[in-house]
# Entry
Amino acid sequence: MSKLEQYTDYINAHILPFIDYNELDRSYQTAEKEYAKGILNRLHTAMLEQYGDTRLICGHGDMQEEYAVVPGVVQGKKTGEIAIALLGIDLLSSGEHCQTEFLCKYGVISQGHNDLPKALAGEITARYLPYDYCYTADISGDIHISKNKQPDGIKEILQTFQEHTAELLFEEAWDHETDMER
# Structure
């Protein structure tokens, strides 16, 4: 099993189904964005655990993976709206960004999938497209982004997300069950 498969299997089983997506969307509207940062931290920690590192390399040669999905942040260029995202990066190229999965109040929404309801696709377009993006990984050889030249909203989240934690819904249920047993 590839590291990409390990990562996606892990987050699909242990993180994504247990995010409070309404809370995440509310968090995007706050100055601190605490819950969003906590979710990004969980996705980043899982990346470290499943890939074995947060450093990936673009280009030919000694490759860990040909393609990676990494956690990151997108910010709509027209609206300034922020969203946590899973970003697909082609490591065989110079870091081509090929896929975006937005984490929003509707769950995990894939950009460009034709099966999205028209209203939902329209809302994603209105809120986020076009967008700037950056990820939590350190991908050397990616010529498409510069972490120093990102919008302030993205920079602030990337600088402080590791200071935050977010409880997932199954943990809240577990804590509630444990409290009831006491």
Q: What stands out?
A: Confidence is low (pLDDT under 50) at residues 176-182. DSSP finds six helices and seven strands in the chain.
